[in-house]
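Posting this for the archive.
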Amino acid sequence: MAKSENQKVKTLYVAKYFLENSDENHPVTAGDVVDYLKNECGIEAERRAIYRDIAALRDVFGMDIEGGQGGKYRLLSRQFEFDDLRLLAECVHAAKFISARQAKDLVDTLGEFCSTYQAEQLQREVFLCDRVKTTQKGTMAIITKINQAMATRQDGKPHIPQKISFKYLKYTLQNGIIQVERRKGAIYKVSPYKLLINEGNYYLLGYGPAGNRKAPQIATYRVDRMKEVKLLNEPREGAEEFSKIDIESYTRRVFSMFGGERKRVSIRFINSLLDTAVERFGTSPDVFYRRDDEKHFVVTADVEISNQFFAWVCGFGKRAKILNPVDTIQDMKAFIDEISGLYFE
């Protein structure tokens, strides 16, 4: 860009300098701006011109530039507050479906909304203990494809939601832990309905094959375990089945109890576990809590009965007990007997 053309946008360069180099903890002077314009932009400017530019940025563009006394200026606020960016950065790093490399790149992008000093803080402040990150590449691209398939409008025009296909991965032990294709590389055809996040993982809620069942049903799939995702020129199916689902109760049952036959179960807990019970079962109208005695309460809720559910209850030891139904109590006893048998043979 020619020097005369640079002069025309000098005020914008001044704004750029403040955005990149100043925050509440890092003041700059008019002299700093003059040097930047000369060395980086090829623009000659006097300090008085910088004062006029700063006034214009305040009055016309609403930039919150504090200062003048002692010749120092600070940019106090911008489009996003630094605390908001820090929270977003922490969420990015905490998401297991985002690889470590992708997380760094995304936080670098967030850093463009703050000063260079704050951008460095975003990368070095987050430390996560025992967070397992996915090694699968292209998860964000897969999410984009799924959203495209679910869209009801594309390019401003009506769009009929469509099926997707993919291969599904699982871990196996072969000279170490590796991922292999499920069902010997069989193609899964799924009608996508909703993307969910649970404990740092992205899941697709869709209508398609699940487990060993051949008939399609509403099921969840880990997005970072999908491979070779493709959009199919086939309309989505399963709308009636999806309409019957209450998302809150469904996700609570599936993610909390790992799936199984659904039953109405009552469990007695000691009072100190009320927070734990509410976090697990929620407070929707179909979940009922009552006081049992001075030391205990009972929660009644729909639960997916499985070994994982029994193990979850066992984790509380004597502090929790299944009260009904009778067949679930019998299954719990069988589960405990089977486990104890491993240690008392």
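The two ends are 83 Å apart (CA to CA). Residues 326-341 form the longest helix (16 residues).
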